[in-house]
Protein: ROK family protein
Organism: Nocardioides agri
Amino acid sequence: MTQTSPVGRPLRPRGKLLQEDARRHHRSLLLQQLFREGPASRADLARTSGLTRVTVSDLVGELVADGLVEELGAPAESRVGKPPTLVGLAADSTHVIGIDLSATDRMTGAVINLAGEVQARHELARDGAVGADAVALVHRLAADLIAMTRRPVLGIGVGSPGVVDAGGTVIDAPNLAWTDAPLAATLAEAFGLPVFVANDANTAVLGEHTFGATGDGGLMVLRVGTGVGAGLVLEGSLLHGHLGAAGEIGHVVVDPDGEVCACSRTGCLETILAVPHLRRRLSGEVDPTAVLTDAGERLGVVLAPVVGTLNLHELVLSGPTELLDGPLLDAADRVIRERTMPVSSAGLTVRTSRLGEDVVLVGAAVLVLAGQLGVS
Amino acid sequence: MTQTSPVGRPLRPRGKLLQEDARRHHRSLLLQQLFREGPASRADLARTSGLTRVTVSDLVGELVADGLVEELGAPAESRVGKPPTLVGLAADSTHVIGIDLSATDRMTGAVINLAGEVQARHELARDGAVGADAVALVHRLAADLIAMTRRPVLGIGVGSPGVVDAGGTVIDAPNLAWTDAPLAATLAEAFGLPVFVANDANTAVLGEHTFGATGDGGLMVLRVGTGVGAGLVLEGSLLHGHLGAAGEIGHVVVDPDGEVCACSRTGCLETILAVPHLRRRLSGEVDPTAVLTDAGERLGVVLAPVVGTLNLHELVLSGPTELLDGPLLDAADRVIRERTMPVSSAGLTVRTSRLGEDVVLVGAAVLVLAGQLGVS
């Protein structure tokens, strides 16, 4: 799913690596099947994976020994002959640490199980920390979270603002004053765990795709916060874009006669939709519905060409639901349909995130699940 | 590359099929290498494919016997020791029939070699043929083209207007009055050849991606003709969209106060950019540059959100160059850059197609190359 590379995986000799890669791939096939479809018998797993019964039994034995898979006994409805024993993913056998750095005033984290369920939460106030202080704060948060679970930790996932490269280095995150910050490498060294870092909007769309989406059609998650950015999963894969800048829709100009933006151009989508701008406009107006409807209509205008071009399945708004869910979403939905062909909008759902404020945390866990177990 | 299924491939027993699939996959690996990188020695092929020397020699022997690959002797610069013999794709050993149904007044076709070079052309006037008459005309064109080459024909590729499913059935093409027309199946039956049919904009983007693009970044080809539609290759794969309707940007509303469109809505991109509208406006104006600049600016407005969202590498306009190449393209390019972040537009090239009017024909050949040889 994601092309983010793991950091902290020990190097192995090349000959061994190919054999291990095949085994790892086969393990992933079985885990993916149990992850997506739920409990199954060994015979089911052999049938769907195309592996032999012997290989499946061998790998399942290994996964049970590792604690990732558990024996569930026979299904209740079995009546004729010796019922097959089902095995299933042991969701709470292993935990993942998810960290969300997208808020401006705090860093949030969670202990998450293999089913994407938050088991415990923790957050630290940022108090304006930037640069090395902000890195130290992420380390403290990770240490606190690891101490909160007694299960083995599969890895650490981080959703960071800004541009993040495939090796987990934050190339540029102005908010945190990070330039070429090797966050994955330093966390991996400090904790001896695999670490995955990705842009927060990309992390969000992976979370929504894995644990919130209804299908496998194109999914766009638009994150509305201090800024506005998007993550996209198209044809089952995260869209990176030519120079890794896919989803940069916040500074697309919507209204050339509008407000001057922080980026120095005029009328960017952010000047209309970002939370501080929305709240300021709501505080000065007597008719909040009119403000939200206007913002939603302008959002619809900018998204209609995107929906028409991509034939999206789901367009998800992620941010404060008291702002997004209601007149704003309704207006955006209406304008998108008015401005595209029925063939483009017939299969489209416009909604808010099913994961709410947890979407980046859960997505950060998906980075680890995909990278370490090959499931997503 | 494309998910279009071949039609006309004989069915084989399942056990045999798996073995043959592995062999076919390995053949494709070698052909893909020769197709993309040019001539290579057997040792080079073994190194890059990861296959053993013995397997490579065996497969190359088979490909030479099939005529797809030829021995090229030793490279001139070899001086020390026994020079390795190079093998290369035998571009003219086998031909492909490409057919373009996107024009309203004629059907065009070509005999194309494995390097994507047009060897011969042929066209038939449509004279308003629709329905079964139009199908009969495609069959006549295919028969004429097959008679024009003495080489073995690898298959027939067709770029058709309208919505085309993965099995090569044209679901809906109003221009030709086709509804659920099983074009691939009837052509395959008539000629005993593998046939691939896809939407013309998707076919065009495959042609440009394989034989006209400069890189592997996101590519969008905007076809401007009687209508306007787009095809996209993102992260190396053709974008289909949720219901197979990706690229339907022609009826995205650009100007709600504009002209009424054939689709009954107002101010669709087609009312601004389609060739008949452009020609009509040019014939009534004294300043053609102003007309073309205005159309280009409006195109830039509708494409800016798409470019920002996708971080495209190349945006290609395909259609009459006397209309597109000049003030129109320049204005679109300028407005897209004015309306997106530098990070979105820095790596972007906006240009006309390198394949000119042949883009659908060559793309139709790519459908066959991808489907039959696994190269693209």
About this structure: The domain at 213-353 of chain A is CATH 3.30.420.40 (Nucleotidyltransferase; domain 5). Chain A touches chain B through 46 residues (CB under 8 Å). The mean pLDDT of chain A is 90.
